[in-house]
User: What shape does this take?
Amino acid sequence: MFEIFGVPSQAIFGQLTLGLINGAFYALLSLGLAVIFGVLNIVNFSHGALYMLGAFGAWILSNYLGIGYFGALIIVPIVAALIGAVMERLLLARLYDLDHLYGLLLTFGIALILQGVLRNYYGTSGLSYSIPPGLTGGTNLGFMFIPNYRAWVVLSSVAVCVATWIVIEKTRFGAYLRAATENPALTGTFGINVPLLVTLTYSAGVALAALAGVLAAPIYSVNPAMGSDLIIVVFAVVVIGGMGSIIGSVVTGFGLGLIEGLTKVFYPEGASIVIFVIMGIVLIFKPGGLFGQR
Assistant: This one.
């Protein structure tokens, strides 16, 4: 074991691992936010509540229906996508011609309702969700010991982020989506069903949030406040990466998670504000974000 600035290497690698885990959730959640903002131009403040809903969905499937973790990974995002489609068609679709503030207030209200309902039924204390048997234990890498489930979360997050980028940047659906973002009226004249495209996009963003919730359930305590504790940081990640930028959300999410982990090692007092300090600096010198446009 060696030391860096008087800090044992094992402690540094341990915090980097935790930072990578946090970065995985930052990336997944900010990716969903970026997809939704890029198409709907709405700041979705209910995203944290939908992440929380994904974790509760996994817990409910396990405790009431006997459906395990891997089943929840499939079922919960699909159900969340259907809920997102209903939300978009019945509520958000009425706000597209109004000021952005209306969308923010509506989604904030939805978040409060979801949190209030679950708090009423399950209280504020955390609910435990077990790590699936196939992912228990850990692996000794020589220089550090990493839990298998945490490695699974990181790899799964990277795979989902890459797949989302490929769909948006390299497929015909992604081309239609980008066209609808730039000029929905012109896109519609080519026979493309823009409202359906918007609904599918919002559903996909919600599904990403719910998937992150399922992945988080065995790591964090499942409780109604878990989304509100995270969403402010995720919004900062989106702003730093660039509103609507897919690659910006992914790179910035993982990068800031690692920076936060290192800050906990070398300057623990600043760990809770380092992301917001970086956001302030980025906004001063590049208001559009690192990967966005002004």
Remarks:
- The CA atoms of residues 116 and 198 lie 28 Å apart.
